[in-house]
Amino acid sequence: MTVSGDNSSSRWQEFRGDIARLGWVHTLMLYWNRFSRRYSLRIWFTPYHIVAQPVRTDLPISPRRAATFDVREIAAGEYAPGDHPCPRPPEVIAERYAQGAVCLAIFKGERFAGCLWYVAERYSEDTVRCVFQLPGEDCVWDFDVFVAPEFRLSAAFLALWQAAYRRFEASGVQWSISRISALNPESLNAHRSLGAQRCGWINFVSIGAWQWQFSFSSLHPAWYFFRQGRPAPVFSVARNWQDEPRLLEEGG
């Protein structure tokens, strides 16, 4: 009985911790997704925060630490299909380049340490079916920020963002917009550390493999039903975070 009681207590503490980090609604979505995956129900939730990060040059990384890394753009066609260091399927990489996205990668000597992607004007999402329309030329959309596991306790994350911000600033970009999973505490914390401000939310409900998708959003359109053969929704990101700043907070 003691072992059973300890397990129940541990699960309850984990549940309470998830509520504190994610909020009630997102915690219930998280647990439903686990249940659905376990029993192959093929119905799942994908909730996103839409956030805006100011381009800044005061990240807490010293020039000496930043200089231990090399950050450079990886051009389309530089690597053969399947050899690109970004750990994504070749067809996903090809689609990103096809829509004009830029891959900014960070290396430690010859070792790939991570990368981030960004695109101007609009971004065609590759995890759900939708397009995000940016509010102006002083914004870019960043996505799929990846740091290799062996570098996650290093300065690679800050060095990568520092290089990205310098590139953005040189081209007149003041804000980097992105969507982050409301179910990923690590990503939420990383964006909080960069001063991310909330500018919207979207909840997707997917049924089957890309067949039916419902979305409910604070952006326009407020709701949308997608099925095969119908155009994907185009969400317009409004410049509301400057009128009423709302920092990304813990618990939803």
Gist of the model:
The protein has 252 residues and is α+β, with helices and mostly antiparallel strands. 29% of the residues lie in helices and 32% in strands.
What does the model show?
This protein is of the alpha+beta class and 252 residues long. It has a single domain (20-236), classed as Aminopeptidase. Helix content is 29%, strand content 32%. The protein is built from 6 helices and 12 strands. The protein has helices at 2-22, 24-38, 63-66, 90-98, 156-170, 185-193, and strands at residues 43-54, 70-74, 102-108, 111-120, 122-124, 131-133, 139-147, 175-181, 197-207, 212-217, 223-227, 234-236. The strands form 2 sheets. It has a 9-stranded mixed β-sheet with strand order 2-3-4-7-8-1-9-10-11, with helices on one face. α1 packs across α2 (24-38).
Outline the fold blueprint:
Elements: H1 2-22, H2 24-38, E1 43-54, H3 63-66, E2 70-74, H4 90-98, E3 102-108, E4 111-120, E5 122-124, E6 131-133, E7 139-147, H5 156-170, E8 175-181, H6 185-193, E9 197-207, E10 212-217, E11 223-227, E12 234-236
Parallel strand pairs: 6-12, 7-8
Antiparallel strand pairs: 1-8, 1-9, 2-3, 3-4, 4-7, 5-6, 9-10, 10-11
Helix pairs in contact: 1-2
